[in-house]
Design brief:
The protein is an alpha/beta fold. The chain has 14 helices and 14 strands.
C-alpha cells in the first residue's frame, strides 16, 4: 500500500497461513477477489480501524454489518465488561438473555417467541428444520444470490463469499441434500408461481433476504415481498425472512416493519449481537412451541445466550431504541450524502457505476445497471472494482474486499469521514478510468 507500513502485518499473515486455511477464518477476508495483502486489524474505535502496522482506515465493513454504532461504543463496552466480571458462561438462563429476547419480541412484528443461537447460519438452519417439521414437507425455495449462511441445503447459487470466489456451490454438499432446494431468480414472482404450481404441496417454506445484501444490495421490487406472502399462505407454506443483515438495520422493526410484510419465521444476527456471536430465530408462538423442550424439534447450543455476547447485543439495541427514528434518519442521510458524491465522481471520471441503497445499506456496482437479481449483479466488472478497492485502501478507506458485499454506514461515521471518502473515491475512480482505457487498448 502506497505510503503505508506493512511489515508486521505481512509477518502475521505469513504465520496465519501456516496454521489457518488461507490465513483467514472466513474466505472473503483473504482478498482473493481484489488482490493485495489482507489486512490484519489491531483495534477499532468509532468509524476507524488500525492495522498491525499502525495504519488507520475509515471502515465501511463494520464487521460486515453488526457494528451499526461503530467500533467500541462506550455503552456497549461498559455492558460487556460488567457482564464478563459476573462470569463468562453458565449453561443456564440469565437475566440478560431474557431482556434481549423481550426486546426482539417487542420490536419485530413477526416474532412472538425467539430462540437465541450463536450465528446467522445456526438461525437459518434451525428455521429450515422447524419449517419442515411444522408443514411435514421437504422442499424449500430460495433465491439465487441470497446467502443464508453455510447451511448445506441453502448453499446452492448463494451470494457472499461464494460469488466473491467464483464458487457456484461447494464440494462436500451431497446432491441429496440440495435436491429439495428450489433456486429461483430474486424479484421474479412469475417463477415463484410456476414453482408452486408444480411443487406447491411439497414446499415447506420460502426463505428470502427481504433486501438482498449478500450479492451486493439489491432491493425488492415493488410487490415482490407481498407476493411471496400471498403465495405461501395460499399453499400452506411458511415464509421465512432472513433478517440477519436487515434486522435492526432498516429500523427497529427490521425489513418486515419497513415493507409491511410479516413472515412466519424470522432469522436474525449481526446487529442483535453488536459484534459478538449472537443469532436468533423467532416467529409465531405456535411454531416456536414446537422447539425442544416444549416440542419435538431438537436444537441446542452450549454457548447459546452467552452472557457476555447478549450483554453486547442488549446494549446495542438499547442505544438504537434511545436514538429511535432520529438515529435511523441520520444513518440514511449519511448514506445518501456519500452516494451522491460517489455518483458524481463516477460521472466526472466517465466510469459506469450503479449505486443501490436501502436506508444505511449501499452497494457500488461497476456496471450501467439496472441491478435487480443475481444474473444482473454478475454483469459487474469485478476487475474495475478490484482497482477501485486497492486505490481506496491506499487512501485509507476500507471497503469489503468484494464487489458482492454491502457498504455499511454506522452512527460513528462523521461528516469529515464522508468528505474524505468522497475525495478518495474521486481519485480512485480516475484510476479505474485509466484501467478501463488501457484494457480497451
Amino acid at each position: 500500500m502506497a505510503g503505508m507500513k506493512d511489515e508486521r502485518s505481512q509477518q502475521l499473515m505469513e504465520r496465519a497461513q501456516r496454521v489457518i486455511p488461507g490465513g483467514v477464518n472466513s474466505p472473503v477476508r483473504a482478498f482473493k477477489a481484489v488482490g493485495g495483502r489482507p489486512l490484519v486489524i489491531q483495534r477499532g474505535h468509532g468509524s476507524k480501524v488500525v492495522d498491525a502496522d499502525g495504519n488507520v482506515y475509515i471502515d465501511y465493513v463494520m464487521a460486515y454489518g453488526p457494528l451499526i454504532l461503530g467500533h467500541a461504543h462506550p455503552k456497549v463496552v461498559e455492558a460487556m465488561e460488567k457482564a464478563a466480571r459476573d462470569g463468562t458462561g453458565f449453561g443456564a438462563t440469565t437475566e440478560r438473555e431474557v431482556l434481549l429476547a423481550e426486546k426482539i419480541v417487542q420490536a419485530v412484528p413477526g416474532v412472538e417467541k425467539v430462540r437465541l443461537v450463536n450465528s446467522g447460519t445456526e438461525a437459518t438452519m434451525s428455521a429450515l428444520r422447524l419449517a419442515r417439521a411444522a408443514t411435514g414437507r421437504r422442499r424449500a425455495v430460495k433465491f439465487a444470490g441470497c446467502y443464508h449462511g453455510h447451511v448445506d441445503a441453502l448453499l446452492a447459487q448463494s451470494g457472499s463469499g461464494l460469488s466473491t470466489l467464483g464458487i457456484p456451490s461447494t464440494p462436500g454438499v451431497v446432491p441429496e441434500t440440495a435436491r429439495d432446494t428450489l433456486v429461483l431468480p430474486y424479484n421474479d414472482l412469475q417463477a415463484v408461481e410456476q414453482a408452486f404450481s408444480q411443487y406447491g404441496d411439497e414446499i415447506a417454506c420460502v426463505i428470502v433476504e427481504p433486501v438482498a445484501a449478500n450479492m451486493g444490495v439489491v432491493p425488492p421490487a415493488p410487490g415482490f415481498l407481498q407476493g411471496l406472502r400471498e403465495v405461501t399462505r395460499r399453499y400452506g407454506s411458511l415464509l421465512i425472512f432472513d433478517e440477519v443483515i436487515t434486522g435492526f438495520r432498516l429500523g427497529l422493526a427490521g425489513a418486515q416493519g419497513y415493507y409491511g410484510v410479516v413472515p412466519d419465521l424470522t432469522c436474525m444476527g449481526k446487529v442483535i449481537g453488536g459484534g459478538m456471536p449472537v443469532g436468533a430465530y423467532g416467529g409465531r408462538a405456535e411454531l416456536l412451541d414446537m422447539v425442544a423442550p416444549e416440542g419435538p424439534v431438537y436444537q441446542a447450543g452450549t454457548l447459546a445466550g452467552n452472557p457476555v455476547a447478549v450483554a453486547c447485543g442488549l446494549a446495542t439495541l438499547e442505544v438504537l431504541e434511545e436514538g429511535g427514528e432520529s438515529l435511523y434518519g441520520q444513518l440514511r442521510q449519511k448514506a445518501e450524502q456519500l452516494n451522491r458524491e460517489i455518483r458524481r465522481a463516477a460521472r466526472e471520471a466517465g466510469v459506469e457505476l450503479t449505486v443501490t441503497q436501502v436506508e444505511s445499506l449501499s452497494s457500488w456496482f461497476f456496471q450501467p445497471g439496472p441491478v435487480t437479481d443475481y444474473a444482473s449483479v454478475l454483469n459487474s466488472d469485478t476487475g474495475a472494482f478490484a482497482v477501485f478497492f486497492r486505490a481506496m485502501l491506499e487512501r485509507g478507506i476500507y471497503l469489503a474486499p468484494s464487489q458482492f458485499e454491502a457498504v455499511f454506514i454506522s452512527a460513528a461515521h462523521s461528516r469529515e469521514d464522508l468528505e474524505r471518502t468522497a475525495e478518495a473515491a474521486r481519485q480512485a475512480l480516475r484510476e479505474v478510468a485509466r484501467h478501463l482505457d488501457a484494457a480497451q487498448g
